[in-house]
Amino acid sequence: MAADLIIAPEAEFDISDAYGWYEELQSGLGEEFLSCIDACIQRIRRTPEMHAKVHEEYRRALVRRFPYAVFYEHTDTTVTVYCVFHTSREPEKWRKRLP
Q: Predicted confidence band at 90 (pLDDT cuts at 50, 70, 90)?
């Protein structure tokens, strides 16, 4: 059974911002980005412990086809996504976004 999902407002902004950038780059590419993000988050919901811890209790899942990572934590019943960052960003930037 898939875990409940909470997406932080900051993560929603990350996704929206990247969508806009990709859609401006090429029509339809933003939609492909959203599809890959959704697939990544659904994998996280089904098997949240699949990805290694990268900082304290927080985990990182890489998005297929796009250079982005989803940072999250989970409990027995809930997955909380805190940020969706481009993988070339400095680690301190995503660490500051984690509670």
A: confident
